[in-house]
């Protein structure tokens, strides 16, 4: 197990280097620091001095990959690549356009993001599985058919409409919770309730239908017949035996998402004005703040890789026959 | 040449025509091979799939009409050789829908309204000023006394529309029955009975009913839109019905071209990795793992931002604003394609790994058939069903992704009509009281119809080609909730 983990972490290094190179390519080669300066300072008629000053303030005035003018190791270290891209590896994200420390912002915005994403994830997972099992329980009846139809319908509605519709119905028409905003501490639940509910409903269609397929495949197995032959109730068969055996595909889809919960949900957060990482990213995109986008891209891929490793570990817990070597 | 217009082929148009050519060629090829026809026959027997197909075809025909672009001539004559063409690129659809396009009101107006949505100060004939809802310039302008005549006029027009729809539908029905009778060499009466009792293998009855419903809804709408704004007008007074119809092309382009763009990468790399193994496999796996590890929407956002910068810096590349908007649409397709090819690539790799160990490929090896020929003759045809399923299943996800990306600000050009830009503009009006609901409702209805039928059709295709592939293709996208553009993975 330990060996396996060490190997997986080592495998992650070349991937992260690749991600780093890719972001460098996108942000500094395709789009040169000069272009970046012009974008930030306003498109037209920017004097060369202003561009130079902008670049100096942010340390973008150095050669990109190789500094022929520097001494010794400075040839490689005194460059944009070394100063801006390499520090990402130890989570030194640098400063945003407004001068704030990105790492600090990320730390403080993680909590609101999690406050939405975690309940959506846990309650969502449980309710999708329950819904799917209900459809399986009533399989080949009109109830099952109606359930599938509902899922396909729900899948076909853009997530934006769930948010807009929910805000209109619950907040504006019925005045139950505030439309948007956020408060720290225990008061937060009033602001979190609506986004969480919408998040759960929004993911219903595709997930429930997918779980239904997995469970349907399971119930034709021998162990199910044995369980029924023992005289167990259909409920017990479904909610214990089938769920346990379908754990592997469920985990495959679910666990990888857990670390990414930190990144929050872009759309939900910005619609509900919740100061999480999702809305942070959207604002950065709208302000063309490349430093933040770069940091989020890197952070996202780190978390994705963590998710993959977690998935493998969770397999061994769900199924003792699986050993990681 | 004395043309009254100058044809313009935008990048996406060219690709659409290419796509049609590819589809036509493969249809011709498939029709000559009975074993390839078999799964398609299964699709044709699927009731939900065929209903969806009828609706999709209606959407596609609007999209295609909207893909034939040209610039009308303004002045000049052939003799002097100096012809001036309008800066606005128009499409065939724009010409057909000219009344909708040109009759622009001042600002918001409700569906079928005769008056503007907001009050304005107008000078009355006696010199005093008053705050009233002014009459619309075009919507219901033919009515002298809207309050009395309005409902009667609407009813008359709807009845006329229904009558026309019924007429078209009956002609269609007649043609269908005659054609079917001719094809099956049965009597017209028998064919009629077979169709309406649902005994035919292809669900003609359901398709005809779907067609009838579509005609019943849209023909009266078209008749009404001759004098009214059926779905109201938006902030700058543009007809919402027109905007919604224009958005169809954008959605279709994103849904189809993205896959077209990514297909060569995924096919080539996936098959090579699985077939050649060794260091090629390692390199390709590294490539797609790296791309896959970046959250899709972030990679898309970063790429769109940066390429938009490139477009902005080279305004001289494009002659007209639509060409620029189209370039951005094309880039969006490219970026979506590049970020979403990884899933298909992985599947194809797995499948070719499996295939290369099978007896018939081993035999081909033993006979000394070169690798290239083995890949093109033996592996490629046997992975095509996966490719096809991936294409149809990605389609709806991509249309949904477009709306979200446009909301984030990294979607299509803001001047381009799309469901995303429609929702985005309408969203801001939610706070108004009374609410401006029609833009949002139209975008919702059109999108739902398009995506729902795409989903149903995809299900039919998947069931016919490989009922078991679903589990492998579409993971339960938990991520899709958090990062919606990932849905297409």
Portion of residues within helices of chain B: 55-70%
Structural class of chain A: mainly alpha
What ranges of chain A have pLDDT less than 50 throughout 5 or more consecutive residues?
none
- Give the overall shape of chain B: globular
Class from helix and strand fractions of chain B: mainly alpha
Could you tell me the number of beta strands of chain B? 6
Count of helical stretches of chain A: 16
Largest sheet of chain A: none
**Overall helicity of chain A:** over 70%
Mean model confidence by pLDDT of chain B: 83
Which oligomeric form is depicted?
heterodimer
The whole-number mean of residue pLDDT values of chain A reads 82
Q: Which value, in Å, is the CA radius of gyration of chain A?
A: 25 Å
Q: What order do the helices and strands of chain A follow?
A: HHHHHHHHHHHHHHHH
What's the order of the H and E elements of chain B?
EHHHEEEHHEEHHHHHHHHHHHHH
- Note the overall shape of chain A: globular
How much beta of chain B, percentage-wise?
under 5%
Number of helical stretches of at least 4 residues of chain B? 18
Largest sheet of chain B: 4 strands, antiparallel
Low-confidence stretches of chain B: 469-489
Looking at this protein, list some descriptive labels.
heterodimer; A: 325 residues; B: 489 residues; mainly alpha; 4-stranded antiparallel sheet
Task: Describe this structure as you would to a colleague.
The complex is a heterodimer of chains A (325) and B (489). Chain A is mostly helical and 325 residues long. Chain A is built from 16 helices and no strands. In chain A, α6 packs antiparallel against α7 (142-155), α7 crosses α9 (188-218) and α8 crosses α9. The longest helix of chain A has 36 residues, at 102-137. Chain A starts with a helix and ends in a 7-residue tail after the last helix. The longest helix of chain B has 39 residues, at 146-184. In chain B, strands 1, 2, 3 and 4 form a 4-stranded antiparallel beta sheet that branches. Chain B has a two-stranded antiparallel ribbon with strand order 5-6. Mean pLDDT of chain B is 83; it is low at 469-489. Chain B is mainly alpha-helical and 489 residues long. Chain B has helices spanning 11-31, 34-45, 47-65, 92-96, 98-102, 146-184, 188-196, 204-224, 240-276, 278-293, 296-313, 321-355, 359-366, 371-408, 419-427, 438-465, 470-473, 478-482; strands at residues 5-8, 69-75, 84-85, 90-91, 120-123, 129-132. Classes of the chains: A mainly alpha (325), B mainly alpha (489). At the A-B interface, α1, α6, α7, α8 and α9 of A face α10, α11, α14, α15 and α16 of B.
């Amino acid at each position: 197990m330990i060996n396996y983990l060490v190997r997986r972490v080592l495998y992650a290094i070349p991937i992260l280097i690749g991600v780093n190179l890719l972001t460098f390519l996108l942000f500094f080669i395709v789009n040169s620091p000069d272009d970046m300066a012009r974008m930030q300072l306003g498109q037209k008629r920017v004097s060369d001095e202003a561009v130079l000053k902008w670049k100096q303030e942010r340390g973008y005035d150095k050669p990109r990959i190789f500094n022929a003018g520097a001494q010794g190791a400075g040839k490689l270290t005194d460059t944009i690549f070394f100063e801006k891209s390499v520090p990402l590896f130890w989570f030194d994200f640098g400063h945003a356009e407004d001068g704030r420390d990105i790492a600090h912002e990320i730390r403080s915005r993680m909590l609101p993001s999690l406050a939405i994403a975690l309940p959506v994830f846990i309650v969502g997972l449980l309710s999708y599985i329950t819904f799917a099992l209900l459809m399986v329980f009533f399989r080949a009846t009109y109830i099952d058919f109606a359930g599938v139809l509902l899922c396909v319908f729900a899948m076909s509605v853009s997530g934006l409409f769930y948010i807009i519709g929910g805000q209109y119905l619950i907040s504006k028409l019925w005045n139950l919770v505030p439309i948007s905003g956020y408060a720290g501490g225990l008061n937060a639940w009033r602001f979190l309730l609506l986004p969480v509910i919408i998040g759960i409903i929004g993911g219903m269609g595709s997930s429930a239908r997918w779980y239904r397929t997995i469970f349907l495949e399971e119930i034709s197995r021998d162990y199910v017949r044995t369980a029924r032959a023992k005289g167990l109730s259909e409920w017990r068969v479904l909610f214990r035996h089938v769920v346990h055996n379908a754990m592997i595909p469920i985990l495959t889809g679910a666990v990888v998402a857990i670390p990414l919960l930190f990144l929050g949900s872009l759309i939900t957060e910005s619609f509900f004005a919740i100061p999480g990482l999702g809305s942070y990213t959207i604002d950065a995109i709208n302000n063309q703040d490349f430093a933040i986008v770069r940091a989020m891209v890197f952070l996202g891929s780190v978390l994705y890789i963590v998710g993959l490793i977690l998935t493998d570990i969770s397999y061994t817990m769900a199924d003792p026959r699986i050993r990681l070597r | 040449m004395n043309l009254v217009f100058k044809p313009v082929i935008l990048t996406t148009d060219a690709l659409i025509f290419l796509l049609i050519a590819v589809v036509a060629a493969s249809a011709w090829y498939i029709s000559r091979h009975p074993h390839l026809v078999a799964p398609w026959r299964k699709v044709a027997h699927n009731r939900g799939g065929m209903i969806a197909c009828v609706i999709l075809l209606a959407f596609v025909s609007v999209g295609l009409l909207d893909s034939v672009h040209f610039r009308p001539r303004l002045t000049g004559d052939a003799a002097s050789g100096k012809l001036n063409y309008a800066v606005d690129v128009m499409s065939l659809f724009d010409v057909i829908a000219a009344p909708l396009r040109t009759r622009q009101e001042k600002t918001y107006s409700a569906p079928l309204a005769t008056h503007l949505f907001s009050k304005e100060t107008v000078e009355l004939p006696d010199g005093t000023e008053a705050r009233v809802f002014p009459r619309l310039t075009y919507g219901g302008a033919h009515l002298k006394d809207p309050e009395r005549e309005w409902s009667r006029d609407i009813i008359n027009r709807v009845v006329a529309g229904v009558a026309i729809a019924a007429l078209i539908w009956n002609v269609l029905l007649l043609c269908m029955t005659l054609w079917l009778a001719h094809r099956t060499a049965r009597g017209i009466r028998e064919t009629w009975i077979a169709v309406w009792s649902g005994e035919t293998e292809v669900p003609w009855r359901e398709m005809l009913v779907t067609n009838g419903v579509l005609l019943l809804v849209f023909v009266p709408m078209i008749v009404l839109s001759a004098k009214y704004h059926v779905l109201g007008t938006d902030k700058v007074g543009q007809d919402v019905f027109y905007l919604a119809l224009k958005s169809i092309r954008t959605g279709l382009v994103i849904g189809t071209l993205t896959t077209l763009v990514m297909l060569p990468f995924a096919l080539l790399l996936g098959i090579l990795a699985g077939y050649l193994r060794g260091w090629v496999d390692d390199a390709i796996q590294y490539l797609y793992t790296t791309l896959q590890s970046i959250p899709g929407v972030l990679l898309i956002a970063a790429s769109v931002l940066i390429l938009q910068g490139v477009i902005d810096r080279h305004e001289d590349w494009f002659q007209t604003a639509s060409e620029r908007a189209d370039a951005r649409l094309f880039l969006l397709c490219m970026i979506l394609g590049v970020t979403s090819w990884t899933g298909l690539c992985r599947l194809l790799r797995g499948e070719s790994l499996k295939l290369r160990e099978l007896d018939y490929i081993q035999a081909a090896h033993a006979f000394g058939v070169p690798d290239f020929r083995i890949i093109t003759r033996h592996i490629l045809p046997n992975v095509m069903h996966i490719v096809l399923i991936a294409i149809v299943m990605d389609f709806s996800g991509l249309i949904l992704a477009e709306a979200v990306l446009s909301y984030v600000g990294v979607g299509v050009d803001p001047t381009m009509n799309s469901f995303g830009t429609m929702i985005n503009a309408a969203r801001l009006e939610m706070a108004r009281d009374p609410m401006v609901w029609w833009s949002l409702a139209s975008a919702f209805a059109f999108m739902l119809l398009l995506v729902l039928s795409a989903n149903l059709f995809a299900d039919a295709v998947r069931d016919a080609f490989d009922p078991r592939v679903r589990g492998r293709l579409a993971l339960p996208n938990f991520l899709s909730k958090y990062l919606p553009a990932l849905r297409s993975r």
